Amino acid sequence: MVSYDIRKLQLVQLEMLKDIDRICKENNIQYYILYGTLLGAIRHEGFIPWDDDIDIGMLHNDFIKFNKLCEKKLPEKYFLQNEKTDKNFPRMWSKIRINNTCNMEREYRRLKVHYGIDMDVFDIIYLSDNLVFRNIQKACAYIYRLLMFEKAHNAIDDEFKRSRDTKIYKILPGFLKSWLLKLSKKITYCTASKKSNYVMDVSAILIMDSGIFEKTKMLKFEDEEFFAPYKSEKFLEEYYGDYMTLPPENERTGHGDRIVDFENSYEKYTL
């Protein structure tokens, strides 16, 4: 059950997307709308009615450039969130957050990170053309994601979830976790900027044909047009399958039980 005005949240996030679109255009940074945002553009010409987030992605070089730019020139109302700017942030990608607002999953109220209203910025890396090494990179990406997400698992409200989801980490000594984290990251990203026939979004561990992102096109999303992969349909087929068929009504929901506040900081709700 959604306990907040989902349309109001969508419109706030739309303004975020417009701001990021402007910043990227002014600084020659190529982005693409992806996942639910891309699906919404193709199927609804705007938000999926029950969706409550914005997804964009960038090839690795642009992702690095974008993060460096935002560290210095992001408007004050926003916060760039990544593992560098927010030490407890448990993700392999970045988010843009609105300061003095809240968009927090209730089960993670113990996790000490910025929880303003947000949009995702995904990192799309090139992978090796060698099948064996590409699969090693994929496996390392899984390991790296698990070790990064340990921070969040340890903050889950429910004691059963904490013990179940983190038991694999409890048997590993700290030095081994640290070593695995560094090694898995190094292998995952070792070809990130080297153009090849394959790319992977590190958030979904989804390997795709790099040709999907070679060109762009503009797609209508709400009242504006935004950059999308030229082969958007291929991207959606690989991720969703039959993406034009609506899910059953009982599956038309947002991203979990969350606290949304447009006027007050997330700090009001953290435990």
List keywords for this structure.
271 residues; seven-stranded mixed β-sheet; two-stranded antiparallel sheet; 7 helices; 39% helix
> Largest sheet at a glance?
7 strands, mixed
Give me the CATH architecture, please: 2-Layer Sandwich
Shape: globular
> Helices and strands: which structural class?
alpha+beta
The portion of residues assigned to helices is 25-40%
CATH class, named Alpha Beta
Detailed description of the structure:
It is built from 7 helices and 11 strands. By secondary structure, the chain is of the alpha+beta class. It has a single domain (6-126, 199-268), classed as 2-Layer Sandwich (Beta Polymerase, domain 2). Helix 4 crosses helix 6. It is globular and about 45 Å long.
Summarize this, please?
The protein has 271 residues and is an alpha+beta fold.
Topology:
Blueprint: H1 6-26, E1 32-33, H2 35-44, E2 55-59, H3 60-73, E3 78-81, E4 94-98, E5 102-105, E6 118-127, H4 131-153, H5 159-170, H6 174-189, E7 198-201, E8 206-209, E9 216-221, E10 224-229, H7 232-240, E11 258-261
Helix pairs in contact: 2-7, 4-6
Pfam family, one: LicD
Protein name: LicD family protein
Domain LicD/FKTN/FKRP nucleotidyltransferase: 24-241
